[in-house]
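Q: Two folds, back to back.
A: First:
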Amino acid sequence: MTPLEEFNYLIGLFPGEKPMVQSARHVPNAETPEPYKRMLVHEHHMTVTMEQYHNCSVDVHVLDQNLDGDLYQRKILLTKSGTDIPVQFGIVRFHFQYVTKAVREQILEGQIPLGRVLITHNVLRHIDLKSIIEVQAGPGLADVLKMEEGQTTYGRLATIVCNHNPAVELLEISAPL
């Protein structure tokens, strides 16, 4: 699957009344502009990166979700802790068979960002950065990230490998910086 096909697939998991994006294009890592390059081009959890960049902890807000056996999908928003200031929009596809019941339950509670849950439970993991995507916000993304429709921001596609298995497919889009 090409980066744009994967991007469209993940966005399509949660169709809404308003289109999420006007357009999107793959951008080579080296051509990602700062500060987005620092925010996205790495193999670390975005939870930690967002907390470091914004100099505060972040809260997770589950906007939509579904569970089918061991396959869990959710659409989320990370905000600066205790505020409604968005820092990141995300879509997650998690294959729960690769983690413990305790990890699964805490993720399903939706109170703690995914990266923090995996770190806290010391899940053997690494993040494979797949691609950087330049995004022009459609009305759906503009509403969620409190940005102008058509405004440009950047995101990434990544896979979290848990206990040697590709467990999590991620789309993470930064609020405009």
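A: Second:
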Amino acid sequence: MASTSSLQKLNQFIVQAKAATYVGDGQNAEPSRPNSHDLAFHAGEFSYLDSYFGGTDFIGQEVVYEHEEPIWAMNYYGRILTPDQITAVQAGQIIKQSLSKLYEEGRFLGGFTHTVGAFSYTDTSQGDLQSFTGKEWITRAGVTVYELVYHGGMIKA
């Protein structure tokens, strides 16, 4: 899967899967590892699994399979920096509202900002679907209260 049209198809699936799972409050899947929180999505030849640990501070991995072969993945680690200024529940709501707007644009990478009340959500990344790094954060009154770093790309056998 390396042609432009196949990469576009993969991007569309990833956006659809992300919107249907965490952001869309999708159903939890059977945990794939002890104490993991798993969200799964399937469409056509693709399947998606987001598996993470934690809550306020968390780490996880998203994997896309094509015909049951892993072809793309992303790892992430996020945490609340100032628990006196934002709760995990607030951060989750801001992230879901912001990412739903980003996914409406048909993408999950690239610069993006969104305001929710007194909070500002920002996402920035470098690279493309094939190989990327990025960071998202939430600020309140100019103070970064939450951050997440991520990286990922295509998997080749």
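Q: And?
A: Residues 113 and 122 are 4 Å apart (CA to CA).
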